[in-house]
Amino acid sequence: MASSMSMKWCKKNLEHHSQSVYDLLKEEYPDVEMKVEDCVDVCGLCTDVPFVLRNNAIIAARDPRGLYIKLKQGMAFLEEETLPGTYAAAQDAAAEDSASKENQDEASAAKK
Length: 112
Known about the structure:
The chain starts with 5 loop residues before the first strand and ends with a helix. The longest helix is centred in the last third of the chain and has 25 residues, at about 85-110. It has helices at about 10-30, 65-75, 85-110, and strands at about 5-10, 35, 50-55, 55-60. The model has no long low-confidence stretch (mean pLDDT about 85). It is an alpha+beta fold and about 110 residues long. Strands 2-1-3-4 form a 4-stranded mixed β-sheet.
């Protein structure tokens, strides 16, 4: 399932503070859209502390480790099972039904 999360990283902030966080998250969450831009119009913050724009909200911390922890906690929902009775659970169930039907069709075609 595609992620609805996006992150914008300031190029200058990556150079000063957050490159290690960017590299870790890029590796752990390859389906999350991550853009590096020359300027994300958060003047002054880029040279002070590590930060990222996650879905256009500023997430900042005192150090790269703190930023990583905040982002990791905020992304926990990407790894959790969906709650029953929610729209996401209904989508997951529909996808599983579709996949099992395709497998049944392939198995019956192989028997013929």
